[in-house]
Amino acid sequence: MAQDRGALMTELCNDPVMLEHWHPVVSLEELRRHGRCRTMLLDRAVEIVAQGEGAVVRCEAALVGSLVQYGYVWASFGEAPKPLFAVPEFDEADRRFVVTGVFGVQVSAGRAIENFLDMGHFPYVHAGILGEEPHTEVKDYDVEVSQNRDEILATRCRFYQPKAAVSSDAGAEVDYIYRVPHPNCAVLYKSSPMDAARLDVIYIFVQPMGQERIRAHTGMCIIDDASSDLEIRSFQQTIFGQDKPILENQYPRRLPLDPRAETPIRADKSAIAYRRWLASKGLRWGVIPAGV
Amino acid sequence: MKLYDFELHAECYAARLMLSLLGVPHEVETVDVYPEAAHLTPAFRAINPLGRVPVLEDGALRFGTVQGILAYLAAAYDTSGQWAPDTAVLRGEVAGWMAIAAELAATAGQARLIETMFAQGDAEAARAGAEGLLRVIDQHLWFGEVEGRDWLCSAPHPTIADIACFPHLVLSEDGGISRQDYPAIRRWIDRVKRLPGFTVMSGVFATSSAL
């Protein structure tokens, strides 16, 4: 295992698709706690140092482009990375923003995002929380790739959940909307148990350390004035802890983009669109490109 | 009775598992160990000067190590007398495997904290130390199966030693330690999972009741 990891480290990511994107490297919360953070991004060691309200990112003494948004420091090695995707809910003053933590996982970014989009595993992996037998059916939903915004949108997703959120007191049929506005980031909107008219936001921002090693940054931007940060965090950590061994037991660890590589079922519509979308970008790093 | 707990903490899981196996009613107070490091604050050190979870409170008594918690729970609440048996041989065996459990925490457990929650340390060295222990444990369990022994100690039933070692072994993959080469450990994990009163944690799944 050590040898595998060594071999992966020797070659630095030179995939223009990855290099030209912004990537999360540390939450402001973690940065404030430690003052600095040493981590990996696209096979390169980077150091983030708090500076005023923001941060400075360096790679081998050279400055790396950075910005602060959604409670995170983002970095890019690109010449002109396009602006970060919009999540307007972050600006709504009455929402709770809770960073639920960052976890290291031995998996590619693509596998982590695909798992986040998948509803089929809820009753088995998150039994008693996000799903429960015999309510295992993934009802038909819609998926589209928005050309304007260059993102995947899955709508009309519904699932029966015994405990959809920390504030739930009973099982409910829950509505989901998924957005994938970045190859390594996904945002989920789900019915809020506290406010029928609005949707809670749960995000996963994946920091690709290497092709098969990530830091998964998760958090919530929700309507809930009753639960403590600790309760919200514990709820999300329990769910992520359940996903982790499943993610780490998927082989190959890189996401295969060839449509014939793995056999999808109807419930995997969003995953099919996601793989197709990544392939259309010409992504070759962290994935197994089609035709290889 | 109150357990100061953190869901993803291996030794907290050992304490929860023991409480569940013995069916001891208790309340849980979650400590924000990660990412907040609330266990290192002066407020928590007033509860456990070691700055560690789990902590078990029973009336005025307080136990701040997992070894202490398991030994106390078995002595005070196990009416069967099986979990911490009172013979000379088994006392020695249990004490020995409790020490191995602490070594597993410092190796396999540490590798997990480094890989998953970015604790400081040398993951490769931690894994190397763990692999050495897992080899010995796997051999011990394999020979046990041949002799008709199912557990770490020579009793015909599990002891607190099995419960102390279990979390670090069942969570080893989090630290990058595969159990592919340790089939006897895998079978022992399934035996623990089939104990009446067994409870899962996030990242540990139940097994079938078959066999």
UniProtKB/TrEMBL annotation, chain B:
One Pfam assignment: GST_C_2
GST C-terminal domain span: 87-211
Domain GST N-terminal: 1-81
Keywords: Transferase
SUPFAM superfamilies: GST C-terminal domain-like, Thioredoxin-like
InterPro entries: Glutathione-S-Trfase_C-like, Glutathione-S-Trfase_C_sf, Glutathione_S-Trfase, Glutathione_S-Trfase_N, Thioredoxin-like_sf
GO molecular function, one term: transferase activity
Membrane-spanning ranges: none
PANTHER family documented for this protein: GLUTATHIONE S-TRANSFERASE-RELATED, HYPOTHETICAL GLUTATHIONE S-TRANSFERASE LIKE PROTEIN
Protein name: Glutathione S-transferase
